[in-house]
């Protein structure tokens, strides 16, 4: 923070002495209220929206609500006369899933469910399989030691042994689902079965989607399936917990096992669509330069048991903050107070599936990327980080990207925050050693990889209710959320009205 002190003082002085004499942004920031945020979120995160999966009727209802709000404010359509930017999806419906082990049949979806396959049709036949315990590969542990699994079926157990501490924590830990699959594939597995106590409800959904532009992805990865504890117990003759306990105390070890395994899998192919929603406030003397304010309006929908994942914080909070900032800028426009640059308010879909909507926009931009001064992305600003134990828990926000791509970013953001809102701006997730890899996990990244300076605002809610049905409106801290949204508005105000676009004088880290 100290290294920016003189620059921050300079920008505060410039703000006081020039543009802000013409227009006081506080007048418009005050329109961002807890009442309005709550009213919007009561719609976006309602049961009627059914978790806003991409695609789904609930997502479409949310898009219609956002579009209606943009129209009401007088925003112009952001995509050549339309408020929508639509992209195509491949719709995959499960038609066949049959698993037989040693002559015993198992029920598709209830006892075996797909996690990943690059094929529309599979006929797997194995006469043996490699049981690799927990499938962990770490500094001083390799559950594959002495086993050649190339081209073979690999069976591993979800979770980790009692008392085991991975050498790296967080998203990169060797005990994570992703790390286990990655290691199995790296060792040449022909297919992977992950044994779990129960098939996760979200994996029992029989219809899945993927972007059409990924259909022709080069290469094929080994298919990955869940199998339930029932499968393990029937095949082995031992209880699931008994097997785990034996692994933990060394009585059972990884090894090759004889057994006839056949799996038949087939998808029925169809098509679907999803869309981003774009509304625009045209600039004045710099209208051919653009500032983006973004959030994803999708969430993860419902599971096979009908539980709704409301996504009030993730990212209902960001979505409704965009709506409120659009209103603040619209009021300024009507009052003849700018903005000088064109401000594009974009809510994107498909973020939860892999940043689909923002990826599509970045590859098919409506506005030139080289004329886009910055993207301010908001993904979860309505909660308090339950892991944060410092005294500022009611007056902070995590800011990601401040030291990447442009040295102007912290100067502007810190200057406006110090002048107006005085939140604690925490740069924890900009640490190169951040094991959660937050910088790469939301829609701003698809702007950053194209060279556009970004700031990402986030509350840190990774554990409590993250991607659970319990991410509900009653957990939102609306006063703190409004303060955070106002701070982002002030930052956007300066970026939209300053004389020069942001410098692009730093490299994006690898």
From TrEMBL:
> By its UniProt entry, which Gene3D superfamilies does this protein fall under?
3.50.30.30, Zn peptidases
Q: Which domain of life is it from?
A: Bacteria
Q: Which residues form the Peptidase M28 domain?
A: 276-490
InterPro entries in the cross-refs: EF_Hand_1_Ca_BS (IPR018247), M28_fam (IPR045175), PA_dom_sf (IPR046450), Peptidase_M28 (IPR007484)
Instruction: Report what the protein is called.
Output: M28 family peptidase
**Species of provenance:** Niabella pedocola
